[in-house]
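A sample copied in:

***
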Amino acid sequence: MTQVVAALIRQGKKFMIFQRPETKTRAFQWEFVGGKAEEGETLEEALIRECREELASFFGSTNPENVIFTMNTTMALNT
């Protein structure tokens, strides 16, 4: 089963979303930071990895370890 994680990053009433590039599937659609969990990864590990990868790219850092964030796990969505 494929498991997917997403980060809802909010500042005040605004949420951070990204528009998919023209070269990717679902081009130009909007999405939250996130992606698929890799084999053997917990959902928390997947979310941390995805945030580091995508936010480092967004902010221009060459080292994803330079992206620092905190997690609030008080709200979870169950499907």
Notes: The two ends are 14 Å apart (CA to CA). Strands lie at 4-7, 10-11, 14-15, 18-19, 30-31, 33-36. DSSP finds one helix and six strands in the chain. Confidence is low (pLDDT under 50) at residues 74-79.
